[in-house]
Design a protein that fits this description.
The structure holds two protein chains of two kinds. By secondary structure, chain A is an alpha/beta fold. Chain A is 32% helix and 20% strand. Chain A contains twelve helices and 15 strands. A ten-stranded mixed beta sheet of chain A has the order 6-5-7-8-2-9-15-14-10-11, sandwiched between helices. Classes of the chains: A alpha/beta, B alpha/beta. Chains A and B meet through β1, β5, α4, α5 and β6 of A and α1, β1, α5, α6 and α7 of B.
Amino acid sequence: MRKRVVITGLGVVSAVGNSIPEFWNSLIEGKDGTKEITVFDPSPYRTKMAAEVSDFEPEAHFSKKEIRRLSRCDHFGIVAFREAWKSARFDQASLDKEKVGVVLGAGSGGILSVEKYFRDFYQGLKRSSPSFLISYSLATTTDHIAIESGLKGPRTTTATVCSSSSASIGVAYEMIQTGLTDVMVTGGSDSLCEVSYSGFGSLKLIDPESCKPFDKRRQGLIIGEGAGILILEELEHALGRDAPIRSELLGYGICADAYHLTAPEPNGEGVERVIRIALDHAGITPEEVDTINAHGTATPFNDIAETRGIKRVFGERAKEIPISGIKSMVGHCLGSAGGIEAVATVLTLESGVIPPTIHYEVPDPLCDLNYTPNQSIKRDVRAALSNSFAFGGNNVCLVFKKFSSE
Amino acid sequence: MYNKTFKNTPNSELQTPNSPKDHRVVITGLGIVSSIGVGKEEFWENCLQGISGIRPIRGFDVSLYRSRLGAQLPEIDFKAFIKPANLRRMDRIGRIVVSTVRLALDDSGIDLRREDPNRMGILIGTGLGSSDTVDQFFRSLLKDGPTGAAPLLFQTAVPNAIASHCSIEYGIKGINLTFSHKETSTEMAMAFAYHLLKEGRADIILAGGGDELSEPLYHVYSMLSALSPGRGKGLEGMRPFGQDRNGIVLGEGGGILVLETLEHAEKRGSKIYAEMAGVGLSGSTDGILRYDLKGDSIAKAMSLAAKEPSTVDYISAAANSTPDLDRAETLAIKKVFGERAKEISVSGLKSMLGEFDGSGGIRACGVALTLFHGLIPPTIGTEHLDPQCDLDVILGQSKKREIRSALLNGCSNGGSNISVWFKRYE
């Protein structure tokens, strides 16, 4: 018999808000987090925009000494974790930390710090501290969070970039199934860095202006950053401590396109497969899905493949399912995208408000579903999907359900 | 049909058509690309003879470091393993691991044409993935600005490129995931594979991974004071559990296990090396670069993994010639096995392979071979055991011993501890 897994805590840092209330308000109001980059000098780049986190002061959260040893990715992850942890309202005295684990998804991790170090090093300057290199490993943010709170359960990090922190949620789900843990900290964190930004730029995947998922004028990504952290908990454990239950994680799917290193399988075959695996694992039919938080990167190819895949699963009914492309507001947060979007999906189920896909002005005949254009809509939703598809066809789909005790 | 099942369930249990079953998980193929041999036969022969892969570093200048050694791979003709069209798109670590997968598949006798690709999966662990490619990419960026950014490098530089290359090369469409958590990266891949196969969510999963030794990586480890000989006057080298051990010597390579449900393996008439029968996962919180100093978490991982502790006859140690880990692992083994600890043979393959995040795949292949052949490779480089590491460490020569079950340990600095339990298959 499988254990039921619920979400009892949420935390977020993003381009549109550094806390859950701020983030959610921005989403439902259709606020755009795209702005000119300040984290590094954008002037040599063809494009200058990113969904950069703003009004975030590390000094408000960390001591001077800590700030020097922590990367920007660590900052976001730890702050979002603290919010999630607090919102879960654990009784610290009675919580068995041997049974609380951490699985995060990573993208580039602390590479911004590593860039800083190697930039100095390669220019013959010896001023950057080797402590920047602690961020060389993608495990670092995961470990910082566990160490800060003394969490002694299983610990690991997934590394599939764009689907990383969705996959981590699936892994966390499985860890609870093993009975080794009652509680898992999951989701992910990522920060802007020049390697990612220039890399996607070199593949001509960045839109110079804004992220316009499913719109005919779309030209690609707006890179984002931040962290989305969820506390997963085994249901009996949550009920036993009268935990705030935000949603239920019914299941997930992970599979591979086995098609191409960067482009998705164009007919949506990989998308279809992963959604079907997720629904099967979750034990629900397509008819029960009321909304989809799309991967919706606004690249020419993804949006078509995703649309086709959704149609293959949902058939005629596909057009009735409101789809949210929130990357239009928070950008493509790479290693933290899955986590941030999972947070949004939980909030959608909890509040009965579906966030919009903004910048939607010119429909694309190849993308002809309902993308909740520009305005959020109020709708009671029972079950929701969150899609994440990474380079190389690394596909993940999460299935969340409005929690009810029966 | 699904609807009805879902709504009628009692509070705490979810019944779905694919409720967990309990398959046995076996190892049916081994792929190894290592500094002491490419392919299972060469590796095992050299392993048993206690051949070291550690030599002076070739290919880049280490004269500015105190450390001079590494266990690097020989020159390999990857064309022997990988289709030319795909080879072109892969960087070196991609080639290493994809070749390892090829070797594993060949060893297993799996005919991909007869398998359902959706029921096959790939789980890869890599600590530092394409460190060299990312560095090259970054240096071009520094030199030429954004116009110097090479898309063909970037697309293979992401950590999951390795798993993508594998899935594309072999048409494998099932579960596909990459873990990157320092020295437990490949152990986590194996642990997750075990869980999924046990539940019948796949028939076959290729699990393991690897890491390469690159110039920027060497620099990072050196600057973080991880490398032997450290600051002292001692000799540079790998001496797991040894007196005067003073840090790691880096290595590189790839190791893949073909993991399969017993049912599927029997249907194929496959040979079986060993059974994977348990995993333990635990975390320690001693500090961002620190191992589990007291060994409690390592002990917990081993206890969770070894369902029949009285049958554990061999431990493939995580010990990596660092003062902290080797001592902690010793404490952990004693905590778990008490008096019986003296009867368990312990060996550290990192003595031959060097230390690298993705070493667990190769070391797991070593455990499978030990169980299959009843032979334990020695821990070389260690002449005198640290009195605090008073275990039955096999030194000098390999040892003949029938092993009923064995543990493979992986322990990361930062605090992830994973133990995998293997049983002899009869």
